[in-house]
Design brief:
74% helix; single chain; Arc Repressor Mutant, subunit A; mainly alpha; 6 helices
Length: 147
């Protein structure tokens, strides 16, 4: 940023920088949210979440899952034990529930707009990590009005 730029242009640059910072933050949280949401789903449907199941469902390598789970463990979202499955901490469970609720809201919203269920599911996967709380609230209000 150049100090001799007019104030409105500096504000615009600052706003643009803030948007980009938010997007970078959203991208870093996206992987964690996808993992904890999947781990919760696996525990709910299969009774346990194993590295091999996560790798298969996400289409990534076993090594990628192992590294990501180690990062999630450092962040306090999961716990692991040697030769056992992966468990969510209370923080991980809360994140998984929030991500699942956000996903469901977006799917419902898209379907109410006329998007077919398959595309709504696919599109929600990307949208759910980058939508603001204000937009989510607008979606909730839209769905309440449309009943």
């Amino acid at each position: 940023m150049c100090p001799d730029e007019p104030a409105p242009q500096r504000d615009s640059i600052n706003q643009q920088a803030a948007r980009h910072r938010r997007i970078r933050h959203d991208h870093s949280a996206e992987i964690a949210e996808d993992y904890v949401e999947l781990i919760a789903q696996l525990i709910r449907t299969r009774g346990k979440a194993r590295t091999v199941d996560i790798a298969r469902r996400l289409g990534v390598s076993h090594v990628t899952v192992t590294k990501t789970v180690a990062r999630l463990q450092k962040e306090g979202l999961v716990s692991t034990e040697p030769y056992r499955s992966i468990f969510l901490t209370s923080a991980g469970q809360a994140m998984a529930e929030e991500a699942a609720a956000r996903h469901a809201l977006i799917v419902d919203f898209l379907q109410k707009l006329g998007v077919n269920p398959t595309d709504a599911e696919t599109d929600a996967e990307g949208i759910e990590h980058h939508v603001s709380e204000a937009t989510l609230q607008a979606m909730r209000e839209f769905l309440q009005r449309k009943g």
